[in-house]
Structure formats: C-alpha cells, structure tokens
C-alpha cells in the first residue's frame, strides 16, 4: 500500500468519518440516477450499487434502507468505519447491504457484478486518494456501460477560507508531528484568538465541531480540491462524461445575474465556461455531479409521449395542510420542495390537482394515466399535459426507464 494511503487509513481509523448517524442523501436513489442517461439496463436483473469509500455508511445505509430491492456494496479502507457501518446494518436488519475492506487505488478483492455496477456513489473520497485520476479511472472501469456515477469532490474556491486555518495550524504544529498532538495545538489555537481566519467565512463553526470533523477538515493528511476546469479534465481523462450537477439550480446563470445585458453576455459563453463563471462567483465548497461512461449521453428532454413512464421523485417533499370540515376534507396549502431548494407554493389549478392526483403513487404511471385522472377532475387534456411538463421541469416527477419501473 502507498505510504500516503497508509497515512489516510491511519487518520480515518483513529477518527472514523463522520460523527453523525445514517441519513438519506440526495443523489443516492438508483432508479432516479439511472433515469438521467439515455442508455438503459436490461430488465429483470438486480440493480447493483457500489459506495466507493462508504466510511461509517451514513449515505449507504440511508440509501439502502429506502431501496430494499437494490443490492448495495460499501467499500472502504478503514476497518473501524466499516465495523460501525456493519453494526448499523445489523441493527436495522438490512439484507441488501454488504461491506468490504479494500483500497480504491487498486480495487483488489472487489467483487464486480457481471456487466459492472449500475450505480457508483462516491462522496468526499476521490480527493483523498493518492492519485485521484488513477482511482477514478478504476471506478469507471467497473461501471456498467449504462451505469451512472454520483460523485462529490471538494471545491477549491469554496474551501479557500478553510485552507487559511489549515495553513495556520501547519505553521504552528507541522505535519510531521503525531496527529493527536496536532489536534491538541490546532484546537487550542482556534479557541484562543479571534483571528478573522477563524471567525469569518462559511467555516466559522470550527470551535464547536467534533474532533472527527476537525481532523477531516483541518488536519487531513491528503486532499486535492477542484475548480470546474480541473474537475472536467479529471472526468474526461477517466473516460467519463458529465451528465448534470446533482442540484442544477445552483448552476443557473439566471438565478445569479439580473436580467439584461450582463446575463445575455454570460449566456453566450460555452456551458463549461458558464459553470466556471458561476463557481468563480459563488465559491462552491463541494462539487457534486452525475457522470456516465463515454458513449452514453444525458437523457433527451421529456417530449410528452403518452406511453412515457413517470414517477414521483424520491427527492421531492410535499407539505400538505388539510382540514376536516364537517366530514369534508379541504386542502389548505401545498408546498413542493425539491432537494434543498426553496419550496414552491402551489395554488389551486391543474398543477396542484396533478400533484394531489399522484402524490401517493408509489409506482410509475403513464402520462396517459395522469391525463385521464385529471380529466375526471374536470381538467382538459392540454392543461393536464402542461401540468405534467411543469412537474417534470420542476423535477417533482422523473422518467424511470421502462426496465426500472
Ligand atoms: C470524508 S470520508 C467520507 C465517507 C463517506 N463517503 C461519507 O460521505 O460519509 C472519506 C472516506 O474515504 C475513505 N478512503 C480514503 N482513501 C481510500 C482508499 N484509498 N480506499 C478506500 N477508501 C478510502 C476513508 O477511509 C474515509 O472513510
């Protein structure tokens, strides 16, 4: 094992990441991820997901507990973290999760399903590898041709203020010292003085964070962070294609720039240059995206074919306020939230009716079914179709591949 990998392993073994418990993360629903690309898997075969660098299984277990028919394999370098994950898997009685200790730099010992993994999740890991390109290329090699990678790496611009703290600690307690000693000096330093490096910017909670979080952020033995050009170069060299940002809303010029000449000028830039501009302006601390293998492509936009399958997105939350009024139930308000975006209030009308017609549908349905259901509520086919388009645009509805319904 490479000496740097060994040092990363020792660090995460002493401080298994993260401190919190399992949560359901955005960007971990297999069918939703698979719906973002044009190629589809063969129907009838189980969906295989790899969590590359699962740590204590926070994202993995959250995802596996809501997708019991999907097969999950979590791998990590750190045995301590895997033992914590295993305990949680047992406690929850999850039969669809396996765990394995291995080094992502070699993938030696990895059991690859025939045809490759349908989905690979990797959050906060590739940037800790001794050679991120070699590691990502290995992951691309075990991804199925129709497969999808959900990736999060650190954003360089967004972490700049964090790196000021790192530099201060490095100066006071150089990297050669034992980690616990560096931790002691680092914590004492940030607690003792009111430097703007510690009190300003988005990382100003550093006095209150757990030891695990402090080590991960400020004492990490190996990390590379990315700006947009570096990230796209990394993907390209690994044989991967950008599909979308996990939250495309964060990467839209019109939510950032006022309407007018400035916005028009920015829109003339090539898509990647637009992303570069947005990153330069908004300093994203994490770059979260979906990628696929070269040869696959992002899915063509919804064209409204009556036979298209639609499904309620697992990343949509609906807040419904209902009142019982003398036997009749009245919906007082409806708010639709996609991921962590601002909730959209839906007033009465076809859109609200469409949401109420499908909100409890657990299975996929055809566009024609929605048109029919709204027809029964007195809504025209044209208005129903328009509502369906709007719900797809908002990402409340998504389009599972037929193999995945
Ligand atoms: C910041 S943690 C993220 C854990 C998890 N993905 C999450 O989001 O909670 C980084 C993880 O990557 C793992 N890791 C780092 N280098 C690795 C390698 N070469 N092979 C396998 N795992 C590695 C660490 O052990 C650690 O658990």
What does this structure look like?
The protein is α/β, with parallel strands linked by helices. It has three domains: 224 residues, Vaccinia Virus protein VP39 (Rossmann fold, 3-Layer(aba) Sandwich), CATH 3.40.50; 59 residues, no CATH class; 96 residues. It contains 15 helices and 13 strands. Strands 3-2-1-4-5-7-6 form a seven-stranded mixed β-sheet, sandwiched between helices. β4, α5 and β5 form a beta-alpha-beta unit. It is globular, with a radius of gyration of 23 Å. The model has no long low-confidence stretch (mean pLDDT 93). The site of S-adenosylmethionine has 23 residues, from α1 and α3.
Provide a brief overview of the structure:
This protein is of the alpha/beta class and 405 residues long. Helices cover 37% and strands 20% of the residues.
Question: Could you name the key traits of this structure?
Answer:
single chain; 405 residues; alpha/beta; Rossmann fold; 3 domains; seven-stranded mixed β-sheet; three-stranded antiparallel β-sheet; 13 strands; 37% helix; binds S-adenosylmethionine
